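Write out the 3D structure for:
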Amino acid sequence: MATTFFHDAHDVQVGEQTFNVANNIYFSSTGRPLNQLASRIAAGAIHDSAERSDAPKCHPDTRVAVQDDLYSWILDGDGASEHPKKIRWVTGPAGTGKTAVMGSLSERCKTGGVLAATFFFASWSASIGRRRKTAFVTTIAHQLTRYHPELQEEISQAIDANSDIFDKNLHTQMEVLVLTPLQKIAGPVSRPGLQGAIIIDGLDECEAEQYHEPSSTSSQGKPERRNAEDQREILQVLQAASLDPSFPFRIIIASRPERVFREFFDPENNDNAATFAQKLDLHEDYNADADITLFFQAQFNQIRRRYDLPSSWPSPEAFETLVANASGQFIYAATVIRFLDAGHREPPEVLLEAALKMHSAARKIASNPLEQLDALYIHILKSSPDPPLSVLWIRSIHKLNNIRYSYASNIELLLRTNPETPSSEVQHLLGNLHSLIRAPHPGNQSITQYAFYHRSLFDFLDDPDRCKELYVEKREIDVLIWDGFIRVCGGVTTGPHTQKAFSHSWLAFHLP
């Protein structure tokens, strides 16, 4: 186990520098409060940081309507309302360009003078500050000191009066470093107040902070904190802040539609849900095909010029196939273009053929044209408590969807291993995978199928070279389906629709 001579040391003075240690991470500062604050931030999480210099942004003339919608809400809100709605959730399946939209919106807000603060989480970052909650509030507060001069002085005084604030929980930090300073500078109603946006991206990538060593004897019996716990804590801190009358900012939170977010923003689960603005779903509310077409057109123009290719390339059929294969995923489009223009020995024509015919032509060349997309799928699937079984369910659902009466309730009855748990098993396996699979509302499961957002998911799952240890043999799918079929036909039925469905469909079911 790694050790340090200064474990959790505080205010160690070396010359003019003060050193503190938290979780074996060293922070240094001068004695001035704002310098102490600056030493506690996650600098790489700010939208224009050096770490994000190559972060995705929206291609010119794409995602314009989405950005206009969000920018208008930041400036004008939802119109006159007795209870202003200060939080808006932006969601969408994996690869739909949420981070690119948030990055471009941040730049637009900065240009317009209404960007109060940003925080871009990233589970892949080498900076622990971008992966965990520890520096979240301090990074927001640090940016607010630069957004408004009066806040700078009030936050400085708050740190001076609360020397241990950096060791407090997020709720206390938000109260001391943000809300109290805002309350102190709040002017009379007649005085124009602050306005602006706080943009949070990738909150679903925030990892849990562990407060004890896994091998410590004092922690026996304590389970490790789950990522969802820290994600929920941040959501609660932001909601509490938004309910304070002195809090003037509008908060945009972008994430995949994972369970913790669906539950938090569900009016039935949150007593203060009336403070949320209408959710924006990048997949359902905006058709991305036109924007992806524009992106492909611009990128192919550059590639044709660079490699002196004819204007007839790619063919209209190939172009349409690429747009269709993207299924609204900007990450697919960007990955394909990056592969074509990466300086391989093969000409772009051969590389494009490989991308279009992944199962055959791609194996003739060494590199994988969809490496980044594969990494994204693996990351999401491994967030399931049982990734191999979740993949088996996904593959089986996809196969069964071609059969009549393959409604969600019937599929769950067929696939679950414990008939006594009608919904807990499917929630356990698929609850974190809603960025890949669209589950029907509980009230519609007897008449609605499961749906999948991206056809490229099954290109990935069908190829053992791409999905590696997550690959499922077709015979395993057949065994799961047949075992469930035999069990159900043995008399396990629930609900008025199930018996009718099985009598017309499952009893005539056969594997191709």
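The chain has a mean pLDDT of 82.
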